[in-house]
Write a structure and sequence with these properties.
single chain, about 150 residues, mainly beta, Porin, eight-stranded antiparallel β-barrel, two-stranded antiparallel ribbon
């Protein structure tokens, strides 16, 4: 399970910050590889005020997406308690709030991370940075903190 805060990146007026809750279930098939399937909730919460010439427009950027994805990780164990990894997700994001133009969007996320704790079993702490792309205009950098069982 992981919690994340996403900082929106990009240009233009469609910039969406988000809070993320994510769970991935799978198996570490070797000390160097993991494969699993995941489910996340991305809640976009920031209202935007756009200043144009002589008027102000308030844009409601609230909405919720439900990404369903496949997750793979490649690990580099550096000790018995620490391992670095690269992670990649690919799947579809479903619009639960009817806030976006398309009901289903392509979901892709990738980035580095590190796990702390016994690598051969038990509970692990997890920190990672993810570069997230959902459809058009929903790019973000996620700072993730999680717990692995």
């Amino acid at each position: 399970m992981a919690f994340a805060y996403g900082l929106a990146v990009g240009t233009g007026s469609d910039i969406y910050s988000r809070l993320v809750f994510e769970t991935v279930h799978g198996a570490r098939i070797s000390p160097y590889a993991f494969i699993g399937a995941g489910l996340a909730i991305n809640h976009f919460y920031k209202d935007q005020v756009i200043f144009e010439e002589y008027w102000v427009t308030q844009k409601d950027n609230r909405g919720t997406l439900l990404p369903l994805f496949v997750n793979i990780k490649g690990y580099l164990p550096v000790s018995r308690k620490v391992a670095f990894y690269l992670s990649g997700d690919m799947g579809a994001a479903l619009d639960l709030s009817n806030s976006f133009d398309e009901k289903t969007k392509l979901y892709v996320a990738a980035g580095p991370g590190v796990t702390f704790g016994r690598q051969n079993g038990g509970t692990l702490g997890d920190f990672s940075i993810r570069f997230q792309h959902i459809g058009d205009g929903l790019d973000a950098i996620l700072f993730r903190i999680g717990v692995n069982f």
